[in-house]
Design brief:
The chain is about 10% helix and about 35% strand. The longest helix is centred in the first third of the chain and has 10 residues. The chain is mainly β. The protein has a domain of about 40 residues. The two termini are about 25 Å apart. It has a four-stranded antiparallel sheet, with no helix packed on it. About 5% of the residues have low confidence.
């Protein structure tokens, strides 16, 4: 304890007072930081709070971050602006919605945003007509800040995912002419530093990034071919931070789950739930499948909403793992966004979905990105 600061609670030892602060929910800690300098310092020590909460077996707090878009503001359906987007943080327990400040400093030319989250910070690229940058949002501080990109890294169509205090970033376009990248980096959110990682085995654009069992996976994607058509990848690559090596995992994607040039970035088609199970929603479908991590095979689980829909390229889904639940977001141009959730079933049980009503989404018809924050 810093002796120059006043006590957290004068009538209690520092360790006991800190345990009281640690038990506060995230939003309450943000308010508590305004009480005094001592409380502010205690609330800002995120790594210590996270460690103590885990040691006390306190339940993980989940928040759903989604960025939604209204295509009626833009007839070409290609630009995200401060007027046609909204950035939301949803509490899955109370269904309360917090509107975040808009991070766009200009018109964005990238309509599918690949986001990541570590503790109580969000990370996403901002690609506009004048510059490319990475930015982060600190929930406790309530503001966005710019994060300098690693040298030579572009923001377009890469994949990223969080693992512990790091954000992993790989693949994407080398330039705006369509070259595919094999480069990989990770960002240390504690020290605000980038680290260059070994290149991937294959160049990948629009691949999906997920972290599972302390390893990072780059799944699917495509690269240009000499004939001018995209070469679609059905494989995945796994990076092990312990060894610093990539391993190629062939046929990792579910049958029929393919990505072509111009398709939506697939990071939100994958979901990791609390007990490290990996799920996917099939392309142009509402079919949900689960991966057997040992056999690396996919099995059918059911359909979002409970009914199989005809394949329709106009309807899209994003799937999210919220603790021990799956959440699915359905969107289509000109239609209101719908949100469903279900408890994870046991063996031989089917998914039972319920629709969730969240106010303020009625006028929007596209989802730019979706991410789960675990605090």
């Amino acid at each position: 304890m810093d002796e120059s600061l006043p006590a957290l609670l004068p009538s209690l030892p520092h360790e006991i007072a800190l345990l009281c602060i640690v038990r506060l929910p995230l939003r309450s800690r943000a308010i508590a930081s305004c009480v005094s300098r001592a409380w502010a310092n205690a609330c800002k020590n995120k790594s210590s709070i996270t460690s103590i909460r885990r040691s006390l077996n306190l339940p993980t707090e989940h928040y759903i971050f989604i960025a939604v878009f209204d295509s009626r503001f833009d007839g070409d359906y290609v630009h995200a602006t401060q007027h046609n987007t909204k950035w939301l943080l949803i509490d899955p327990l109370t269904l309360g919605v917090q509107v975040l400040p808009n991070p766009l400093s200009a018109i964005s030319i990238e309509m599918n945003v690949c986001s990541a989250a570590t503790n109580d910070q969000l990370f996403l690229p901002q690609v506009n007509q004048t510059k490319e940058e990475f930015c982060s949002y600190d929930i406790g501080a309530g503001r966005w800040k710019s994060v300098e990109l690693p040298p030579g890294k572009r923001c377009r169509r890469f994949c990223c995912a969080e693992m512990k205090e790091f954000v992993y970033l790989c693949g994407g376009l080398i330039n705006f002419t369509g070259g595919a990248s094999r480069s990989a980096f990770r960002y240390d959110s504690r020290n605000n530093q980038w680290e260059k990682l070994p290149d991937m085995i294959m160049p990948r654009i629009n691949c999906a990034g997920v972290s599972m069992n302390d390893k990072f996976y780059a799944i699917g994607g495509y690269c240009p071919s000499p004939e001018g058509f995209p070469q679609i990848h059905a494989s995945a690559e796994r990076f092990d931070p312990a060894t610093g090596q990539w391993t190629l995992l062939p046929n990792f994607c579910a049958k029929g789950f393919r990505y072509a040039e111009g398709s939506a970035i697939p990071e939100s088609n994958f979901a990791i739930v609390e007990n490290k199970r990996l799920f996917v929603v099939q392309a142009q479908s509402n079919e949900v499948m689960e991966l057997d991590g040992l056999k690396e095979e996919w099995s059918h689980l059911g359909y979002i909403g409970g009914v199989c829909e005809m394949r329709d390229c106009g309807t899209n889904y994003k799937i999210l793992g919220v603790g021990s639940e799956l959440w699915a977001i359905q969107y289509r141009v000109g239609k209101s966004i719908k949100i469903y959730s279900c408890k994870l079933p046991g063996e031989s049980e089917s998914l039972i979905w319920r629709q969730i009503e969240i106010g303020g989404l009625e006028i929007f018809d596209h989802v730019l990105t979706g991410k789960i924050l675990e605090v």
